[in-house]
Amino acid sequence: MNPYLLLLCHLWLLSLTPLLLASVSTQGTSSLACWYDSRAAIFCDWTPGRDLADAPCQLEISSKLPFFARSLFSPEKYKEHCELLKAEHTTELRRCIKTFSKNSNSQSFTTADRLNMSVHCRLGENGSTPARLEDFSPLANIKLRPPGNLQLVNKAKNSYNLSWSLNISSHYLDGERQYQVRYRTTSQSWEKHPGQFCQLL
Ligand SMILES: *[C@@H]1O[C@H](CO)[C@@H](O)[C@H](O)[C@H]1NC(C)=O
Ligand SMILES: *[C@@H]1O[C@H](CO)[C@@H](O)[C@H](O)[C@H]1NC(C)=O
Ligand SMILES: *[C@@H]1O[C@H](CO)[C@@H](O)[C@H](O)[C@H]1NC(C)=O
Ligand SMILES: *[C@@H]1O[C@H](CO)[C@@H](O)[C@H](O)[C@H]1NC(C)=O
């Protein structure tokens, strides 16, 4: 193979619908930030103060509309909880991922959903609510999962077929997804060469 062939590719997925552009930044001013993967999962990052880096804390997610029933016979639920993991050493973030369905590609939220999120911690005998996020609209705060199964196949001299798959993504985004491919030759480094970009629709 020619050493200048493009062997390394990174792929970004941008969700740039007009609807979503209005709130690319996350809602709320607290240190709690949440995103929706557009299907069944919401994930949140919280920056705790030093005192709460290791405290047992959980995120409470409440909704006016009932959450999708997990099974036909379970009662409707308006509150869900998600355990916040201990702070990561490098980022000092505490995260949690809540999936609202066993099938990670089922549509758990629509544009009508508004959620309140709050962090609850226990320190000794006392509880505290150090962060909250109100009126969170999942559909306005989408961060898609990265594409997978990236393959680069040499078709002819200097011609490649690049393919990938996207397992988890809402039908609401059909026709709206944009992809960006960043590539470099193997003899270059990302540090010295930011790479070249091309937009794919
Ligand atoms: C969210 O919080 C606001 C303000 O505290 C409250 O008015 C509203 O009822 C809450 N909604 C839910 C679903 O808990
Ligand atoms: C719990 O709260 C009480 C009353 O505010 C306070 O006196 C006590 O020191 C607190 N305990 C802890 C472990 O923070
Ligand atoms: C490129 O690869 C994909 C996945 O292997 C395949 O479906 C597609 O037909 C290929 N396209 C061309 C032009 O060969
Ligand atoms: C995506 O789906 C394919 C085929 O169903 C599966 O093999 C693969 O593990 C899935 N990838 C992810 C990231 O879930």
TrEMBL record:
Residues 1-22 form the signal peptide. The keyword Coiled coil does not apply. The gene is IL2RB. GO terms for molecular function: cytokine receptor activity; interleukin-2 binding. Belongs to the type I cytokine receptor family. Type 4 subfamily. One of its GO terms (biological process) is immunoglobulin mediated immune response. It is a single-pass type I membrane protein. GO terms for cellular component: external side of plasma membrane. Residues 30-127 form the Interleukin-2 receptor subunit beta N-terminal domain. Keywords: Cell membrane, Disulfide bond, Membrane, Receptor, Signal, Transmembrane, Transmembrane helix. It is found in: Cell membrane. It comes from Anas platyrhynchos (Mallard). This is Anas platyrhynchos IL-2/15 receptor beta isoform d7 mRNA. It comes from the Eukaryota. The keyword Isomerase does not apply.
